[in-house]
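Renewal narrative, Specific Aim 1. Our central claim is that a sequence can be written position by position from structural information alone. The example that follows is taken directly from our test logs and has not been curated for this report. It begins with the structure tokens describing the chain, in the order in which they were read.
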């Protein structure tokens, strides 16, 4: 019962920027890995360069996550490994509790870290046969989807107002993580001739993710209004406005690429690159703002 009380936050956890950025990078890590897999499975060999960049992104984003979680422990940071190993006298061993969201999350992050590391190394060395690589990526993407959505689910299973009053947070964090990952990968490939062929696909995918994200934001506000806790979210409306601005920018850019393809690609490359920089940064800022609004509204 002590563990469950701690995990369900009997009092507000008072999380700071460490956890905010952990939530951000977890979404980027999982989302980038999933997008890299989708690009690799798309059937167009020209997308392989962008897929490798996606796996490169997933690796450092994954490494940052445990560092932020460890930093959030404060003076007890050196005890981080207790999440994985039980140090109870007479009962030592692996510390895995399937009923504990935090324990499951810690182990999922560790396992996903293995997939992210191997895929990043192979993207650099290119020694694993493509068929085996694709199978490996598919399994890794299952964990990537979990990592990208887990932080929202963790909040939903707490007993804190706002977080526990809506079922939309897992899907919202997943859609937001995929959108931010698409924006970041697009930003990184815009000046790479070998990968820029995937730019339009990434912006269009970002548009689809943004539509889902916007729908879940609407669901979020409806559910917390029904629960009577809307007043706790109102002070954070400026952050929500930034998140919606990022979604709007993504939708405009996706529509622009759709029109460009319909016109036979007549838009200038320079114009596309300028839009990519502005929109990608706006989307990433929106991803961060949405997480900040959710986290701090319940504290």
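The sequence written for that structure reads:
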């Amino acid at each position: 019962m002590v563990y469950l009380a701690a995990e369900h936050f009997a009092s507000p956890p008072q999380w700071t920027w460490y956890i905010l950025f952990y939530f951000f990078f977890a979404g980027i890590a999982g989302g980038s890995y999933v997008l890299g897999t989708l690009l690799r499975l798309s059937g167009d060999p020209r997308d392989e360069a962008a897929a490798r960049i996606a796996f490169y992104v997933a690796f450092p984003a994954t490494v940052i996550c445990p560092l932020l979680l460890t930093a959030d422990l404060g003076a007890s940071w050196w005890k981080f490994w207790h999440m994985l190993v039980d140090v109870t006298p007479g009962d030592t061993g692996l510390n895995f509790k399937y009923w504990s969201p935090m324990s499951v999350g810690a182990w999922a992050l560790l396992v996903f870290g293995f997939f992210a590391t191997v895929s990043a190394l192979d993207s650099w060395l290119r020694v694993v046969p493509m068929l085996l690589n694709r199978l490996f990526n598919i399994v890794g993407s299952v964990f990537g989807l979990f990592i990208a959505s887990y932080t929202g689910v963790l909040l939903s299973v707490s007993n804190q107002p706002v977080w526990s009053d809506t079922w939309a947070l897992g899907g919202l964090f997943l859609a937001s993580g995929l959108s931010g990952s698409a924006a970041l990968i697009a930003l990184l490939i815009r000046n790479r001739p070998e990968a820029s062929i995937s730019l339009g696909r990434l912006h269009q995918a970002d548009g689809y993710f943004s539509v889902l994200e916007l729908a879940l934001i609407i669901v979020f506000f409806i559910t917390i209004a029904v629960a009577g806790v809307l007043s706790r979210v109102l002070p954070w409306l400026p952050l929500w406005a930034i998140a919606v601005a990022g979604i709007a920018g993504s939708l405009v850019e996706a529509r622009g690429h759709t029109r460009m393809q319909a016109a036979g690609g007549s838009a200038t490359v320079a114009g596309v690159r300028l839009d990519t920089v502005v929109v990608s940064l706006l989307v990433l800022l929106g991803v961060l703002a949405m997480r900040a609004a959710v986290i701090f509204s319940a504290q």
